[in-house]
Amino acid sequence: MQNIREVVSQEESSTLLRRELDYLSTSDRQILLQEAGIVSVIGPGEALAIKAGLGMPWSKLRVLRRWLKASGVSISCEEKMRQIARGLLGENLQGEVAPLSFCLSSGGEEIRGAPLVFMPDLNQKVIQMLDDNHSVGRLTWHNGIIPQTEVWVKLGGDKGGNTTKMNFQIVNVPTPNSIHNACVFCCFAATDSVTNLHSALDRYRDQVKQLQDMKWRDYTIKVFMCGDFEFLTRMYGLSGATGMKRYPLRSLECIKESHKQFMAAGGKRKKVKNYMNCVTEPIFDIPIDQVCLPGLHITQGIFVKIFDLLEDACHQLDLQLAYTYTEESSSSSSFTKYVEELHKLQVAKAKLAEAQDAMVTLEEAITYIVIAHGEDSEITEFLMQQAEDMRQSVEKMVDNSIIKKALCMIYMLTIITKHKQQEEMANTTKVTNKEFAAHDGPFVQGLDIALQSFGVHRQQYFGGTFVGNHIHKALKPSNVECLSSCMVEVAKAKCPALVASATREQTRFRRSLSLLGQCHQIYDQNYIDESQCNELGK
Fold first, then answer.
1. Looking at the whole model, is its pTM more than 0.90?
2. What is the pLDDT of residues 240-260, one digit of tens each?
């Protein structure tokens, strides 16, 4: 057959063979190759490029290898790929088991070894990315927003899943916030607590300072800090993101000086509010006016607070509706007792949550102080005694008979309202830890339906997974109207006597959400000029 091909094709048998294969259908050609035992092989270099291009971990690549093997395509062995990767990385990436802090399920924190991967030379990688973008003509100064003599670099971090990742981005590119422009330079398998951030990032303190003094191709490098508000407070050594006391405008020097004064005064955490809440030193010397405000995070936090108030207003209307039904069906005053016990429960739970948050913050500070000053220092002993006193206070609040009594009474009165007293009274002792189901009422359910009407599902909120796209949707004028008017619609259908109350709530929340939407529309863009800042100030 080969001789015939050579004669017919005039000694170009491979060309004739290719044409013969071209006449076959794709499926027939695939079957022919499999029967002949011909396998296409992807070399280690190409396979590594596929892995990096698709952002696949090794486990996903193994799954892909099995799928491709069934179709006659073989990927080079993993060991050869890892050898190439090690050669490319060289000394650019290092790893170690670092002492990091972890919260215990029983309360408190412990320090144990955890993986930490980092680039030893951050500045070299920044320069490399600037050179790479310059070589392909991707650098831009965004129509004069960035001065022509400067290049901007943005440092930031975030916790996702079980790891915390620190990255940098070159701002002088068309899409500076793109994931493809982010370069992770440090990653560790723990939370982004103050202790862990210092353990991972103190090695970069001098490098960041040098980076701000460097020049690249006659351009001055300007470094910015970004992240959510809680992350920023930890990076700048502030005690938390929920402080209520007003302070003068802080500066980097002011934070450092306040922290020195705080430590000189004994470092007692109860007194930190007198020192502008500067409980630790800033990790990086990046000026405050070079911090990128987390606009979307701010909007998300405010929106969640307004939504909680809206949900509570719907729940209060549900209570009034239930009161109306109770008065019609029973002459007892059980509903009044129900409301009183519910109020006691809400107040007690709020105090408990506040105390628990304070205890967690204190334990985090203790962990940092132990690493920095040792277990036998006076400040460590003082803080540990303070934490023990607070823990005992929290335990007393958990055992508080008011909470248990209120929960039991609420459940009993709910049973009475549902006319199931005789059937369920024997089981009340088993349910003293149950909470009142605030999401069963028609007004709260109406709010749920309003959310779903524009693509935001309730389980996403209660799972703590409200994302930026949900906020964008919810703050559109038409959706603000939908959220605020749902109470009136339910009142008209269920109890016309509550229409006036529902209308007052509608007016209140329509205004709040509309103003938030206008603010979000201003600071959600790339650049805000002075007139827009003045507009936000109004």
1. no
2. 766 556 667 788 999 999 989
